[in-house]
Design brief:
Blueprint (H helix, E strand, L loop, with lengths): L2 H11 L12 E2 L2 H8 L6 E5 L5 H9 L2 E6 L5 H5 L8 E5 L7 H8 L6 E6 L5 H10 L6 E7 H7 L10 H9 E9 L4 E2 L6 E8 L10 H13 L5 H8 L7 H12 L13 H15 L7
The structure holds S-adenosylmethionine (SAM).
S-adenosylmethionine binds next to strand 1, helix 3 and strand 3.
Length: about 290
């Protein structure tokens, strides 16, 4: 029986209709699930959104332990069926955006050395999930995710490139993002409206930036891209709510890092090292006036 027929039969058996609002587009091509599962090495893996268990099943063959976080509790019987022979899986029903990842890793992966993230992500929460993973301060072995093609283009962009945005800069801070392969709509049920790309983010061995305050650096990156039409200096003055006396300090700080062209420079031209350096200077020179951790 083909995978698609089997999936439709299972959904029917449990009276389930895939929910668009939860990004429920299931992989029906085992070649793709195998390929994604095999992309990262390590002993433990967290899967986000196991759905009907197609990718989970492949992950269970490779990793010592798989922890899968699924928001839709009604999938419980559908998930248990394909995974009934796997004794290395733990399923947690909950919202990945609300789960304390450090706590989960301490409880479920004590003694494990290399923890991976692997997911066919629900596209409606791609960016918040990636930012949460990065800001959780866990050094994963790798984050391998299938996402919408347009999001992949952004995640893998570098300073000065067309798709570079705040998330690209924050991903650059954490690691190297690479597009691995594209996946056509025909590999899903139901078929999504968009093309998909598998992206692997590998953390930097040696950090490329060490900001004094990550919180301030993230704020600065967000302000720089939020006010795209403003110059960086003006975007920071507005975003950080800088008072009259400190306005010139911001201009001087940006000049120190960006040089002569600093007057007109915009956020999209700065790499993560420059953002971190600007953030450190602001931290030292005007920290006491800005609400930062
Ligand atoms: N892994 C399966 C596959 O590849 O066929 C399903 C992937 S489907 C694109 C996304 C899955 O994420 C769905 O099962 C959905 O219910 C689940 N999901 C959606 N939002 C979630 C959230 N906030 N936390 C955890 N899981 C979520």
């Amino acid at each position: 029986m083909s995978n698609l027929i089997q999936i439709k039969k299972n959904l029917e058996k449990y009276n389930k209709i895939p929910k668009k609002s939860l990004g429920q587009n299931f992989l029906i091509n085992p070649e793709i699930t195998k390929k994604i599962a095999g992309l990262c090495l390590g002993d433990g893996v967290i899967e986000i959104g196991p759905g009907l268990g197609a990718l989970t099943f492949e992950l269970c063959k490779i990793y010592k332990k798989v922890v899968a976080v699924e928001i839709d509790k009604t999938f419980e019987p559908l998930l248990n069926e394909p995974l009934s022979d796997c004794n290395n899986i733990k399923i947690i029903f909950g919202d990945i955006l609300k789960i304390d990842l450090r706590d989960l890793i301490q409880k479920e992966f004590a003694g494990f050395e290399r923890i991976n993230i692997c997911a066919n992500l629900p596209y409606y929460i791609t960016t918040p999930v990636i930012l949460k993973l990065i800001k959780s301060c866990v050094k994963y072995n790798a984050i391998t995710v299938m996402i919408q093609k347009e999001a992949a283009d952004k995640f893998c962009s570098k300073a000065g490139e067309k798709n570079y945005n705040a998330t690209s800069a924050i991903i650059n801070y954490y690691g190297e993002a690479k597009k691995i392969f594209s996946v056509a709509k025909s590999n899903f049920y139901p078929q999504p409206n968009v093309l998909s790309t598998v992206v692997k983010i590998t953390p930097h061995e040696v950090p490329i930036a060490n900001p004094k305050s990550e919180d301030l650096m993230y704020k600065i990156i967000n302000f720089a891209f939020e006010h795209r039409r403003k110059t960086l200096v003006n975007a920071l003055i507005t975003g950080l709510n800088i008072n009259m006396t400190d306005k010139n300090k911001i201009a001087d700080i940006v000049k120190k890092i960006a040089g002569e062209k600093s007057e007109n420079i915009r956020g999209e031209e700065l790499d993560i090292k420059a953002f971190s350096d600007i953030s450190d200077l602001i931290y030292h020179e005007i920290k006491y006036k800005i609400n930062i951790k």
